[in-house]
Amino acid sequence: MSTKDTADRFMAASPFAVMTRVLAQTFMGSHLDEIFEEHRGQQYERQVKFSALAIAVADVALQFSDNFNQAYKSHQKDLNVSLQSFYDKINGTDTQLSEAVVARSALPVIALQDQLGFEPWEVIPGYRCFSIDGNVLAKSDKRLGVLRDVKGAPLPGKAVARFDLQRQIFDRVYLLADGHAQESTTCESILEDLLENDVIIADRHYCVLSFFAGIANRKAAFVIRQHGRLKGVLLGKRRCLGRIETGVVYEQALQVSQSPDAMVVRRITVELDEPTRDGDTEIHILTNLPTSVNAKTIANAYRHRWEEETAFNILQMTLTCELSQVGHPNAALLLFCLSMLAFNLRQVLFACLFAVHSLEDVEAVSHFHLSKEVSNHTPGMLVAISAEEWDELIPATIAGVAKLLKAIASQIDIKKYRKAKRGPKKKKPHRSRNVASSHVSTAKLLNLV
Q1: What angle do CA 280, 225, 292 make, to 5 degrees?
Q2: Counting Cβ atoms within 10 Å, is residue 138 exposed (0-12), middle (13-18) or buried (19+)?
Q3: Whole-angstrom distance, CA of residue 36 vs CA of residue 93
Q4: Which of 56, 250, 373, 403 is at a distance of 20 to 30 A from 12, taking alpha carbons?
């Protein structure tokens, strides 16, 4: 049987596995070594290339391997180092390099989406909108020597991500090795990546006056929920502007401090029909967007912030973004970033589906069913088709890759991948906080911060 016949059989039986393999080779080639050269810091390459290391770790993220040890055995020939050297290299990966992997992966994702004819959703007309949110990595096992005798649960770090709401991808990540660090400490880094007419949408953790000023200085905008500690001075009368889906919208000007030269912002209030999970019956949203953008549009835009939390949930449910055995902050954060890269690849698959199937059918596709097909069939597919044969099958250009992906997507019976419908969720019982169980920062114990 020819290689093409074998590939055709896999395309028919497990199309998403084939498409993921095509994208993985397109995104995880030698350009990862270029990223390493640009962001290597104090790191060096002797026998193992960063691209080979990243591909092995990506196996864990994509659930082809259960842990780093299995990934090492699968890629031992390409790695060409001992298991201990493999672990040392992962633990030595600087956070700036992991951040660069996510940022650089967004560029070819956007190029592929454009080739596929994907039309970005419009959140606020005329602006690029980004949600900012943080994710605390789950506690790890106490395998590292410095963790053996500590009582608290070890925290390997945090990831603050920027989520492109128009394209539904992670295009930046700001890593905190110290699990105790505040998310707001990344504000300066977030500002460095802002362009004119960008809009930052975020929760009250980012309600920081210096952050507001930095955004305004870059001719960008913010839509951020007011924190209780920021009182400000209300100006003029509050005006009722009508209803949105979740409640009644009001607007009033707010001077952010008592200082006479303090910034004046628009304060959008939504009196909610149903209280939030924290029991709040109204929320206040602060923005410096011009009055040409009406308050109801801003209130609805703030609701899109939940799309990033949904993306984090998909990471946790369908990819291996956290592994309890991985306690070293650098290794845990590298795994999380490669999971974000894998999520971005997944979004290209959805762009392919949008190109050839109806919107209603694509929105009903289950990330879980798609992920299971990829993880279940890829190992066998890689045995049946060699790396050299994949080189012949996969086009060398972005346009060629897009054409191949579209052809495969057009043959998919999309109804096989529909989400399962479930009944209403039961309310979770209240659990009191376990005060005796505290957390420790692994990075502090390792003197990394």
Answers
A1: 120
A2: middle
A3: 10
A4: 56
Q: What is the pLDDT of residues 404-414, one digit of tens each?
A: 999 999 999 99
89: CB partners within 8 A, 6+ apart? 48, 53, 81
Q: Is 198 helix (H, G, I), strand (E, B) or coil?
A: strand
Q: What is the pLDDT of residues 306-345, one digit of tens each?
A: 999 999 999 999 999 999 999 999 999 999 999 999 999 9
Residue 382 has a pLDDT of: 82
E strand or H helix at 400: helix 398-410
The vertex-376 CA angle with 419 and 15, nearest 5°, equals 65
Torsion angle of alpha carbons 83, 104, 344, 81, nearest 10°? -10
DSSP per residue, 55-99: HHHHHHHTTSSSSHHHHHHHTHHHH-S-HHHHHHHHHT--HHHHH
Which residue in the block uniquely carries the two structure tokens 């694509």? 362
Helix (H) or strand (E) holding 267, with range, is strand 264-272
Q: Which residue has the tokens 């993306």?
A: 311
Give the three-class secondary structure for 7: helix
**Cβ neighbour number for residue 328 with a 10 Å cutoff:** 24
* b/e sequence 42-68, b meaning 16+ C-beta within 10 Å: eeeeeebbbbbbbbbbbbbbbbbbeeb
Give the total residue count for the chain: 449
Residue whose C-alpha is closest to residue 200's, from 246, 189, 232: 189
pLDDT for 111-135, tens place per residue?
Answer: 999 999 999 989 999 999 999 999 9
pTM: 0.91
Overall average pLDDT of the 36-50 stretch: 72
